Automatic annotation (TrEMBL):
SUPFAM superfamilies: NAD(P)-linked oxidoreductase (SSF51430). The keyword Oxidoreductase applies. This is NADP-dependent oxidoreductase domain-containing protein. It comes from the Eukaryota. Pfam families: Aldo_ket_red. InterPro entries: Aldo-Keto_reductase, NAD(P)_OxRdtase_dom_sf, NADP_OxRdtase_dom. Keywords: Oxidoreductase. One of its GO terms (molecular function) is oxidoreductase activity. GO terms for cellular component: cytoplasm.
Amino acid sequence: MVEVLGKRFGPIGFGLMGFSDSSGVLGFTWRPNPPPMEDAIAALKVAADRGLTLWNGGEFYGTPEYNSMTLLKSYFEKYPEDADKITIIIKGGVDVKTLKPDGSPEGIRRSADNILAQLGGKKKLDVFGIARRDVNTDFQETLSILKKEYVDTGKIGGVALSECSVKTIEEAVKVLPIQSAEVELSLFSPDILNNGVAAALAKYNIPVVAYSPLGRGMLTGRFKVADDFKGRGFAAFFPRFQGDAFAHNYKLVQTLEDLAAKKSCTASQLAIAWTVAVGRQPGQPAVIPIPGASKASQVEENAKFVELSDDEFNNITELVNSFETAGRRYPDGVPMEI
């Protein structure tokens, strides 16, 4: 189980960026034609009722009119009784016009205040997540402002990191308790298990909020060729979903589908189960994956947690360790692990 702000969650959370189609490839607020608000709210209600009660969003997911905060405000207006049951983490600290990290005193205050204003008092901002460290500002000053002006005053419950390096983790814990770290973890992206990030998080008992546990939708098995990703937003430009890289990476998907068939579950459920099981291993931080979906039916599928035996986990881990994913996690220029 994952613990955030003294509350326990798990085994699965919910990612607001994945509200698009059943694959979770696009952010539901990042697509040209996001789903109707009523459909998004219906999906969120299923998540809440199925125990997926740790929700993760971003200030920069969408437009001023349709984004994580406006969706959450509408949801909690309709279901105010769920406000205490749900814990939300909203990432900020980014210039929403340029999408570049902004951890300056003015930038971090503007971000936190904007998130609070858009939530409209319908739900407390439980955790403010720093989307990316701003290397051009004093990181400890950024954290100190959040602690003194927002956490200590009760405006927010705590602070989280995202896409962080070992150095950033080590510096952050000197200023205030870090509630969680949102980092990518999937069969395609086990990087944190080998680069010291997971070890550092375990050292300080910081849980992993694992984003893209379904490999941006590819691990669902829905996408058979690279062209299937065309027109599907930012992910269509990722190196690992291009041409020969896609064809190579699809081999892992096929193996996953075979394993899922033997276990009488879906490839998605098996991929999610593996990320959870990682966090149950000695020396690893607790892990809660946050798959997203815009349809209630997909939320239902993801919420059906599959337990892995030790042998099943070890077999999948051996597969992951022996498979070299082709292509970088992000296109050139996108900051990673900072």
